[in-house]
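Inputs:
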Amino acid sequence: MPSTGRPAPGAAPALSPVTRPSTVDLITAELRNAIYSGALRVGSPIREVEMAGQLGVSRGPFREAAQRLVSEGLVVATPGRGLSVRTIGKDRIRPLYAARTVVETSAARIAVAEAGDEQVASVRAAHDALVRADATHDALQVGAADLNVHWALVAASGNPWLLRWMTTLIVEVRIASFTVSEEYVVRKDAAESHAPLVERLEARDADGLDAAIRANLDDAVTRLLTPEAAGVETLEEPRPLPAPRLDPIDL
Amino acid sequence: MPSTGRPAPGAAPALSPVTRPSTVDLITAELRNAIYSGALRVGSPIREVEMAGQLGVSRGPFREAAQRLVSEGLVVATPGRGLSVRTIGKDRIRPLYAARTVVETSAARIAVAEAGDEQVASVRAAHDALVRADATHDALQVGAADLNVHWALVAASGNPWLLRWMTTLIVEVRIASFTVSEEYVVRKDAAESHAPLVERLEARDADGLDAAIRANLDDAVTRLLTPEAAGVETLEEPRPLPAPRLDPIDL
DNA sequence: CGCTCTAAGATTGTAGACAATCAGACGAGC
DNA sequence: GCTCGTCTGATTGTCTACAATCTTAGAGCG
């Protein structure tokens, strides 16, 4: 996963205004990561008194951060009953992946047409990381590196809107997999099955890349909806245990 | 514009949980509408003490609502300096419309394949409203009805993600037009130029609809970036004056 | 006149308090 | 044994106060 604190690429030639992240920024990132990693369980209530205490912040900025995630669709706010981590059940998998396919294939076409060598190289680097993660046989690490390849591909489009949507989609995909299964499942041959994505980008083959992305995402849908029919070897791991507590934020 | 309080379509056959909108929901909608309508000027600071007072709410929920809009990209939060309405300058028009094209053309293809008669009829109804708005020769009304046709088309896809993105994109498109121009400009023949969208949806002509959307959005980009080269008759209106104050929310 | 510094007022960010609401447990009645 | 009502504790939602920071205006100096 692109860490949520990913720095802006490149160094500005001139001095830039210094903006340090606000407390709300930090809490938002912490909560988003906790949801992504499974430390905050899908569907679980977010007890703001307890959790703000754990993070070492007061309830005000905690609530503000939570509202950001409500807008992102990662957290659900029910008046009078508080906050909970969203769930994305089986009935929403196809629309989720349809939307994801829209973003990724469109970004890929833009990237093929417009991405510079540096951006293409960052997709290759993300795939190299996936190769290394494959060697660990750790499903969560593989899954994260896998998603990072997809993210880097969308980032290579240079379109801020597509990248913003993809950043949220990646967490939503995690939420979906944690919702529909007690196990976290990835392909055993993740690096190999993702190689066409990088190769076709490098070859500037838009149609080939489009088809490779669709095949990859169709396969993911099948694995999520009908695991027994997926027909590939997989790595499985029990869904991560929720963290007993979140750590205080270093303000 | 689809009003921000648009009810969920259809009636659930079973009893649904009753959820009344929270204060934060209401403030969010109010601010979003104020930005959309120009009552809150692009780039202007959002003075939370003053504005919460105007809306008749306290600063806490006001700040929470603002954070939702920060996540939507409509409001910018700068630590220590507070909130401001976003601007989208000329350099962002092409990426914005590229993203909008992605959403609309993809949603259109899904709608052609999957939309029921009722959804297609709602796009026709939105176009009928555009015909009526055309007769007013009021640029803002025409523009709103125009955007509503596009929104209805994406809604016809039935994909919640695409619709969520489109709902924000519509406000962002407004922000962009208010940023780059002192005037609000729409085509004089808006209804006529949008007719192909409805007709091709009704005819289930995916390629034709895709091409019509692209032509329509390309034209909008040209009108935004190089108004003198647009080559069509337009309606212009001075950008709406910011409202001196927002009205209290009826809680 | 222009620039710098300081002070005052405005605003933001957060903490804590209080009222309203929700959830769960227990007891009474059928 | 089951259902309903009541009570208590937990939690949410909002408000207010205070500290920190920012902005602006005015005064002084070169």
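The CA atoms of residues 55 and 247 of chain A lie 6 Å apart. Flag for discussion at group meeting.
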